[in-house]
Design goal:
Order of helices and strands: EEEEEEH
Radius of gyration: 14 Å
Distance between the termini: 26 Å
Number of strands: 6
Mean pLDDT: 88
Largest sheet: 6 strands, antiparallel, barrel
Helix content: 10-25%
């Protein structure tokens, strides 16, 4: 089966903090893949598809975090959920692009 995606996913392991738009509690998870358009997270906190979230991605390879001001949970299943990035500042979008470049798997020439 071939997946057709707007943005290719890159496997990665990074700490992420998130809160839903309905709660101010900050929760923690582990991001296990990322793309220019979103990411997937493992967390013990149950979250429902359709929820709005704000994310802080600990991009240790960059030395600075990436803040996603608005994202939407598109799917959730057994302690994992996927989000679509809806709003990033220009600075955070630039950080995300640098992070994707740093973590992108190298292909053999």
């Amino acid at each position: 089966m071939i997946e057709c995606r707007e943005h290719p996913r890159i496997p990665v392991e990074a700490q992420v903090y998130f809160s839903t738009t309905n709660h101010t509690d900050i929760r923690q998870g582990t991001m296990f893949d990322i793309s220019a358009g979103g990411c997937a997270v493992i967390s013990t906190v149950p979250i429902n598809p359709g929820s709005g979230v704000r994310l802080l991605i600990r991009a240790t390879d960059l030395g600075s975090a990436i803040t996603v001001h608005a994202a939407a949970v598109r799917w959730a299943n057994h302690g994992e959920f996927g989000v679509e990035f809806l709003s990033l500042s220009d600075l955070d979008r630039s950080r995300l692009q640098r992070f994707l470049h740093v973590v992108k798997p190298q292909t053999a020439s």
